[in-house]
Design a protein that fits this description.
The protein is of the alpha/beta class. It contains 10 helices and 4 strands.
Length: about 210
């Protein structure tokens, strides 16, 4: 119960966060913060992505976009299961939409989130038994944290291709590319992803649900 109350207090504190506006690491966030995160004292699965996009920033709900549809298909879960915070927590590397770059793509997750919140957050969620690490930013944080420091500098393709190496551990990690349509070419170029990795992902998720 203590962990649950501490998580509730932490989530409220995150909801009030203005670090990237008032004490930014570089340029301040170009809009009002709207942290999107779902913490849980019972969820055994954590989805660790990059940062909310424009649609999620508008809705305040994670993965309410085509990327979310694809991610749910990859995991083999319904929307009801996906948004059941008692079973799946969602902790992106950046809690707020970071803004757009000159070409109209999303900027990287704000560095302030990781240094301010992530260690505190995961210290309060020891029940987690699977981290789905989506993209290099999440992989660069979670793999060293959970015992694979040597993988910190690997490419996304190398890391995702080595998914089997991260399974035999107290808290396994399944590394994924971002489920954006922008990665359609990557998925087509790497057929082993859908053939070999996704069945493992679905099996692990189903076992923990």
């Amino acid at each position: 119960m203590r962990k649950s109350s501490e998580l509730t207090a932490l989530e409220a504190e995150i909801g009030r966060c203005r670090v990237c506006v008032e004490h930014p690491a570089g340029r301040p966030l170009p809009h009002e913060p709207r942290p999107v995160v779902r913490l849980s004292a019972t969820a055994r699965i954590v989805l660790a992505g990059q940062a909310p996009g424009t649609r999620v920033h508008a809705s305040g709900m994670p993965y309410t976009d085509p990327s979310g549809d694809r991610l749910r298909a990859w995991m083999g879960v319904s929307a009801e299961e996906f948004y059941d915070v008692s079973r799946i927590a969602i902790v992106p590397m950046g809690f707020c939409f970071p803004g757009l770059d000159a070409k109209g793509g999303d900027l990287p997750p704000r560095r302030e989130c990781r240094r301010t919140w992530h260690d505190r957050t995961f210290a309060l969620m020891p029940q987690v038994r699977l981290v789905v690490a989506i993209g290099l930013y999440a992989q660069d944080y979670h793999l060293p944290r959970l015992g694979w420091a040597d993988w910190k500098t690997k490419s996304l393709t190398e890391t995702v291709a080595a998914f089997a190496a991260f399974q035999d551990a107290p808290v396994p990690v399944i590394p994924l590319p971002h489920p954006s349509w922008r990665n359609n070419a990557w998925i087509k170029k790497n057929p082993w992803f859908e053939r070999d990795l996704l069945p493992v992902l679905r099996s692990e998720v189903r076992a923990l649900l």
